[in-house]
Amino acid sequence: MQSRVVIVGGGTAGWMTASYLRATFGDRISVTLVESSGVATIGVGEATFSTIRHFFEYLGLDEREWMPECHATYKLGIRFENWRRPGHHFYHPFERLRVVDGFPLSEWWLHQRPSERFDQDVFVIASLCDAMRSPRHQSGRLFEQDFVENGDQPVYRTTLAEQDTQFPYAYHFDASLLAGFLAKYAKQRGAVHVVDDVVDVVLDERGWISHIVTRDFGEIEGDLFVDCTGFRGLLINQALAEPFVSYQDTLPNDRAVALRVPVDMAKTGIRPCTTASAMDAGWIWTIPLYGRIGTGYVYAGDYCTPEEAESTLRKFVGPAADELEANHIRMRIGRSRRSWVHNCVAVGLSSGFVEPLESTGIFFIQHAIEQLVKHFPAESWDERQRDSYNQRMARCMDGVREFLVLHYRGAARADNAYWRDAKTRTLPDGLAERLEQWQTRLPDTESIFPYFHGFEPYSYTSMLLGLGGIPLRPPPALGLLDGTAAAKEFQAIGDQARDLVNRLPSQYSYFAHLHDLPPERRADAS
Ligand code: FAD
């Protein structure tokens, strides 16, 4: 029975894994989490992808209870600024495309072009983001319920049973507060917490991990070891010598500098989206939490020095950045060749990482944990289970890499060496061919196969249409069809968006209201 799980690392990956395993298996397995008090967590990673809601719901956590504790806010999508030209912005929202007469509305948009704003014409969420609205009413009702009650076609019909479906929003949260919250959750459910440094990882004669050695607590034995030690990959890469497959040739951004900026949200409001602003050697993220902004410049060390990057970030933030300490981070871009080797599974940065342009770090963690449960070695070790797990994780990360490369190749911006080089750099397998196809037929499920990486055709389409660097044509068949229904749908989306902007509260007032309530009253706030 492989029932003793030892997790090394107490960052987001470690605590998400500990809580999920305890919630799933209860006392049928033991979970021990060892973390160093001397090695800090990465300290960033605060924007998520919409499937994250499955994670919280699975743990049985009510968002109106945990969100205020983690200074969390809603995220309806990503706002891309200046990727096409200075001053231009568009959204990649969590909203599926509607289909009219068998064609996605995006293709009808290319044919009819009702306005210059593709995102506003085909997605309701773009207008909600511009107007900084909360997706929920004070009563806790979600905006999609308006569609149902008004008799319109609902944008989403998701049920938890359909695990791969997406919700129309994700979260921003303070990563260290969330780790603390999940630590409490896991410990209440029996996870053992050891604060100590792992000083050695001991292998048996087969080359499997037999135990770890900690400085003060001595040896800790286990059956399954989970490496959540971040970029250092203490177990997977160092002890087991699993090679790291770099993505640097296709994604050159390898550094970041970050700031935590307090802001008066009553004055600024809270945007319900992450913002990614294109810069001279990369891009700056802006993540609005309740009470502060997380921001950072992701850049390529070959094009920009750390000093230049920090100065660019400080200028971007303005006087609020004065006196704040900057956190400089070197990023390891790519993945461990296999995430699961013998009796060790890497989860989090030790498994793999791509720049956070689409907020996929925590998504990788969630996907890894869900797959770990599905492949859990209950009775005995089975090589086929490990292979299946490794294949899925590799495909997921390779798929996200491809999607990110598309962001740079597809951006109209080409005003300096960094952006020009992005147009000639190597493309991952098959992307060049698919880009050709997408010029006349926008991405559909089959053409983004073989990857499962959470992104759906609407994501690819949003980026291709928003970035503006790749010429796109509507399918010729649309010229032979009556476009009346499509025109009506554009009109309906505009009407729905205006109506919702009028009726939904601002994101700031929604959370100010929630924070004002005593914690015991938040779950039934209205
Ligand atoms: P870490 O946070 O590095 O934790 C490592 C843990 O291992 C620590 O607890 C440390 O104490 C412990 N440890 C290390 N060595 C030892 C030892 N010898 N003994 C005991 N313990 C040890 N993801 C997103 O989803 N959205 C984002 O917006 C996003 N932005 C990011 C921006 C940047 C610049 C970077 C670099 C990453 C970003 N990520 C983002 C990724 C996200 O931060 C990580 O996926 C997430 O924080 C998980 O990190 P981790 O737990 O794997 O590692």
UniProtKB/TrEMBL annotation:
SUPFAM superfamilies reported for this sequence: FAD/NAD(P)-binding domain (SSF51905)
InterPro entries per UniProt: FAD/NAD-bd_sf, Flavin-dep_Halogenase_NPB, Flavin_halogenase, Trp_halogen
Family classification: Belongs to the flavin-dependent halogenase family. Bacterial tryptophan halogenase subfamily.
Protein name (record): Tryptophan 7-halogenase
Organism annotation: Nonomuraea antimicrobica
